[in-house]
Each structure stands twice: as structure tokens, then as C-alpha cells.
Automatic annotation (TrEMBL):
Keywords: Membrane, Transmembrane, Transmembrane helix. This is Fatty acid hydroxylase superfamily protein. One of its GO terms (cellular component) is membrane. GO terms for molecular function: iron ion binding; oxidoreductase activity. The chain crosses the membrane at residues 7-24, 45-69, 89-110, 143-167. It is found in: Membrane. It comes from the Bacteria. It comes from Maioricimonas rarisocia. GO terms for biological process: lipid biosynthetic process. Residues 90-226 form the Fatty acid hydroxylase domain. PANTHER family: STEROL DESATURASE (PTHR11863). InterPro entries: Fatty_acid_hydroxylase, Sterol_Desaturase_Related.
Length: 282
């Protein structure tokens, strides 16, 4: 698969899922929004554009190009075996998803990385655009990690494209403010991270923030002890975001969002229990 085809596939999937989840949110919202869509959506989507351009300019090698280079050089674990192609693709997608799970945990555990990741968690609402709202430096670090993982695993190019498309689509899906029957959600969250499952991760209560790290596959949280089934306050009453940034201007204006990692955290304007503090310890 060449770079042009990869771009077309990824852009088409992005636009299709964004449109589908937007229509679902409008027709059947799960929660009443704390802030309007206009400013948030404009800034979140502009941030995606900036991140895309920055990644292309600063990291000229795409993950697909890295996969093709690894294949030609025989690098990586999967190039040392002769397993069926479908199995190698499946294993590579699962392995890359596990890498993203650990990356997510790391961005919560390491204070310097958490400052970058705050941009994602500072959103006062969680909807489809929250799933693509990440600081540019976090996107660049993530891209470098994925390049290393692709080469180390020897992931086939098809697996890389599938993984990128699935990760982007499920991130928008599980951040969406959509309502679905509880029975459907409980069944579906055995195979994919659902909106009700991931929304808990955006709770202002720290022990809930540090749970449900998965973006695509829900198995890692269950296997590694980071799964939480329900929020303490319930989905309708739970407060989203972080204590450091509660003003709309702080989290909706693009230049404010980009400066969050470099600004001194504000004190919460209202008294909150110590368990809600969102600064990593240690």
C-alpha cells in the first residue's frame, strides 16, 4: 500500500465516522453539554489540522513506510517467522493496541507527560471531537513510539493501516456523547471500548481518571486491573474534566489549549475532595 492510498483510506474513514457520530450525538445525546459545541468544536478540529501538518513536516516517515522498510530489511519479530499472513496482521493489530494502552498509562503516570495529556482531559464535555483533541507534542511522541513498535514487531503494512483506522474510529466512537441501551453497552464493552465505559476515564475524580485506559480493545483494562464499570456519581451527574482548568476560555480557545502544558496549574475555584486532585503523585 502506497502513501497516497493510505491517506485516502484514513481521511475517508475519519470523515465518515466523524459524520456518523455527530448525527448520532444530535439525535440521541447521552448527557446535556456543559458548554456549547461552537467554540469547542472549532478549536478541537483546528488542533487536529495543526497536528496532522506538524506530524508530516517533523516526522517525514509514516508508519506504513516504516512497515515497508522493515519488511524489505527483514526486521522485527514477525519477519522471523513464517505464519499465515492473516494471523500476522491480526497479531500486529492487537500488539499495537497494547502498546497504545501502555502509552496511555504512561501519560498519566509521568508528570511531564501528564502536562501534555491534560489538553485532552481539560475538555469540559466529552463528545466525538474530544477523541481527536490532543496536544501537538503528545501526537509527535505517540507517532515516534508507533514507528518504533511497527519496526520492532515487523508489523505488515496492512496491519498498520487497519490499526490506525480502527484506533481513530474507536477513539471518536468511545468519546461520543451518544445514548445506547444499557444491555447493548454491557455486551459491546467485551469487544470494544464503549462511550459509557470510556467516559468514566474523563471523570474529575482521580481514581476514575486513572481507569479504563483502553481506546480500542477493552481487554487490557480487565486483565491489568484498571477496569471500572461505573462512575461514582452516575453518568448524568458526574463532573468531567480536571480541577486545574474549569473556565471555558482556558479549554476552548486554541492558543490556551496549546499553552496548557507550559502554564502553572490554577487552583480549583470551588472546594473539592482531595481524591479529585488531578496531578500525578510521586
Amino acid at each position: 500500500m502506497d502513501t497516497q492510498t493510505e491517506i485516502i483510506v484514513r481521511l475517508s474513514a475519519f470523515a465518515g465516522v466523524l459524520l456518523a457520530m455527530t448525527l448520532w450525538e444530535l439525535s440521541s445525546p447521552r448527557r446535556k453539554l456543559a458548554a456549547g459545541k461552537g467554540g469547542r468544536w472549532t478549536s478541537n478540529l483546528l488542533l487536529v489540522a495543526i497536528n496532522t501538518v506538524a506530524a508530516r513536516l517533523i516526522i517525514p516517515v509514516t508508519a506504513v513506510a516504516a512497515a515497508l522498510t522493515a519488511e524489505s530489511g527483514g526486521w522485527g519479530l514477525l519477519h522471523q517467522v513464517a505464519w499465515p499472513y492473516w494471523l500476522e496482521v491480526t497479531l500486529a493489530v492487537i500488539a499495537l493496541d497494547l502498546v497504545i494502552y501502555f502509552q496511555h498509562v504512561l501519560f498519566h503516570a509521568v508528570p511531564a507527560l501528564w502536562r501534555l495529556h491534560k489538553v485532552h482531559h481539560a475538555d469540559l464535555d466529552v463528545d466525538v471531537t474530544t477523541g481527536i483533541r490532543f496536544h501537538t507534542l503528545e501526537i509527535l511522541l505517540s507517532a515516534l513510539l508507533k514507528l518504533a513498535a511497527v519496526v520492532a514487531f515487523g508489523a505488515p503494512a496492512l496491519a498498520v493501516v487497519l490499526f490506525e483506522v480502527i484506533l481513530n474510529a474507536t477513539s471518536m466512537f468511545n468519546h461520543s456523547n451518544v445514548k445506547m441501551p444499557e444491555k447493548v453497552d454491557r455486551l459491546l464493552r467485551w469487544i470494544v471500548v464503549t462511550p459509557d465505559m470510556h467516559r468514566i476515564h474523563h471523570s474529575i475524580i482521580r481514581r476514575e481518571t486513572d481507569s479504563n485506559f483502553g481506546f480500542n480493545l477493552p481487554w487490557w483494562d480487565r486483565l491489568l486491573g484498571t477496569y471500572r464499570s461505573d462512575p461514582q456519581e452516575g453518568h448524568e451527574r458526574m463532573t468531567l474534566g480536571i480541577t486545574d482548568y474549569r473556565e471555558e476560555d482556558d479549554v476552548e480557545r486554541l492558543h490556551h489549549m496549546l499553552l496548557i502544558p507550559f502554564r502553572r496549574a490554577k487552583q480549583a475555584t470551588t472546594a473539592r475532595r482531595s481524591e479529585t486532585e488531578n496531578e500525578p503523585q510521586g
